[in-house]
Specification:
The chain is about 25% helix and about 25% strand. By secondary structure, the protein is an alpha/beta fold. The strands form 2 sheets. An 8-stranded mixed sheet has the order 5-6-7-8-9-10-11-12, with helices on one face. Strands 1-4-3-2 form a 4-stranded mixed sheet, with no helix packed on it.
């Protein structure tokens, strides 16, 4: 699963502005100039004061890393950046060229843009996770304070299965928390994905495999996707969430997909998915929606919620019940009963 050409960037921002920095600085023996010049593993670099937002100048550092940079060398680079306290820095892995200013749009160069916040320590762990991800997955990798995000070059759910298998097999990746992997065929909102706050385990892989098999029962030409989310972004969210989306052919209005009109075509997919959800921790949630176009056909499609249920008698799925929820809740209760 190694990439023919690994290209990854790490885009982060540290808090605060730096008062003075020359632009550019003296070139280094390793190529480039600035605060990272001369560090082992840095192929080319520059740093200087740039406009980082309207009317605000701050220290920007850009660097391209050697393809065979070691975790120890990358740790030293990250430590040097932490000491310099730049407002924005971008590290690319073996790309071969550097932006000449703050990158507004990394485009489809297979680079990665990160969040505007500092990496969680220790930097040695993050360096190891970044390089293991870049050298394992066929896709682009984002390393940020929020974790590691992977967008696969290949766009099917089976490719996601392969990536999860590689995660469990790799000694670094199977210890990596806050890891998310998604397919690359669609926009983030309608791509299949798995994300876990805790390091992924064989249990994560088994849950995904069982969910993946249910797609064979989806209606023809419905472009189904599944997202498995293990962990919470907020305290009031479920411990595990399974989200399923469809684009049912010929359906253009919300509220028209009912058990009477679509039950014989959707229940064969829904029930096996609820079989998986019923074995999740109490409070876990399942939701199924169908994408419908915005009025006038402009803008992103709306998701017409069809099913929204939760595991446990006292669990709240959120939102008003739908025409599907009563039957789905009854079925889920039978799955969770001892």
């Amino acid at each position: 699963m190694h990439r023919r050409r690994t290209t990854v960037a790490l885009l982060l921002a540290a808090a605060g502005l730096t008062s003075c920095t020359s632009d550019p600085e003296t070139p280094s023996p390793n190529g480039g100039s600035g605060v990272l010049a001369g560090l082992d593993g840095v192929r080319d670099t520059w740093s200087g004061l740039q406009e980082v937002e309207d009317g605000v100048r701050g220290l920007v550092v850009e660097a391209d890393l050697d393809e065979d940079i070691t975790p120890q060398q990358l740790t030293a680079v990250l430590d040097a950046l932490a000491q310099a306290e730049p407002d924005l820095y971008t590290l690319s892995l073996a790309w071969g060229e550097l932006p000449k200013s703050v990158p507004d749009d990394l485009g489809d160069r297979d680079l990665v843009d990160g969040a505007y916040s500092a990496l969680d320590p220790p930097t040695s762990d993050r360096a190891e996770q970044f390089l293991a991800s870049a050298r394992t997955y066929d896709g682009s990798v984002t390393l940020s304070s929020g974790g590691t995000e992977v967008v696969l070059d290949d766009g099917g759910p089976d490719d996601l299965t392969t990536a999860l298998e590689a995660t469990i097999a790799d000694p670094v990746l199977r210890r990596t928390p806050h890891l998310g992997i998604r397919t690359g065929e669609h926009q983030p909102g309608d791509a299949s994905a798995v994300r876990s706050d805790e390091p992924m385990t064989p249990v994560t892989l088994d849950r995904w495999r069982r969910l993946r098999t249910t797609l064979a029962s989806a209606p023809a030409d419905s472009a189904p996707w599944i997202r498995l989310r293990e962990g919470r972004d907020h305290d009031d969210e479920p411990p595990v969430r399974v989200s399923v989306g469809l684009v049912l052919p010929g359906v253009t209005q919300p509220g028209t997909v009912t058990p009477e009109t679509w039950g014989d075509r959707l229940w064969p997919m829904i029930r096996p998915q609820l079989d998986v959800v019923g074995k999740l921790p109490p409070g876990s949630a399942y939701e199924l929606g169908n994408e419908v176009p915005q009025p006038g056909g402009t803008g992103l499609p709306d998701l017409d919620r069809l099913v929204s249920v939760a595991v446990g008698a006292d669990a709240d799925a959120g939102g008003p019940p739908t025409a599907w929820d009563a039957a789905a809740t009854t079925y889920l209760g039978g799955v969770t009963s001892p």
